[in-house]
């Protein structure tokens, strides 16, 4: 779902690309080293997302979102969906405070977020029921297909 600006590609996207070009090398290196899928500007938002198949099941995700011209915040979480009950079991702690664009500090924040996700257990997840059954929108196979192409995580810590 777009953010509502019909001129996003002309007005906002060039500004976001210029901003993220300042940190793209550290983001791409992080993604490559851990085998993460990068999704840029989801719903035309000011963020890059990194997604992967969580080793215990479900999806892990880390977001780097632009705060202002000199900082980002890092948000992250993990979820497991149960199609039959239309329930998402998830954990999303509050995003980080403002993080400067220096590569070392940003990389450490990303590594810390990934390590945090991987220390959680299924019992740490909280259930959230969907307002409408997922079966009204798609089949079980179609629903889980959206996660099929997520990469397997590489993490050696």
Query: Nearest-angstrom radius of gyration?
Result: 16 Å
Structural class: alpha+beta
Overall domain count: 1
Tally the helices: what do you get?
5
Q: Work out the helicity level.
A: 25-40%
Summarize the topology.
Elements: H1 8-11, H2 13-21, H3 24-34, E1 37-40, E2 47-53, E3 59-68, E4 71-82, E5 87-91, E6 99-100, H4 103-119, E7 126-129, H5 140-145
Antiparallel strand pairs: 1-2, 2-3, 3-4, 4-5, 4-6, 5-7
Task: Please describe what this structure looks like.
The protein is α+β, with helices and mostly antiparallel strands and about 160 residues long. The protein has one domain. It is about 30% helix and about 30% strand. The protein contains five helices and seven strands; from the N terminus they run H-H-H-E-E-E-E-E-E-H-E-H. The protein has helices at about 10, 15-20, 25-35, 105-120, 140-145, and strands at about 35-40, 45-55, 60-70, 70-80, 85-90, 100, 125-130. Strands 1, 2, 3, 4, 5, 6 and 7 form a seven-stranded antiparallel sheet that branches. The mean pLDDT is about 95.
Provide key terms for this protein.
157 residues, seven-stranded antiparallel beta sheet
Describe, in short, the structure shown:
The chain is of the alpha+beta class.
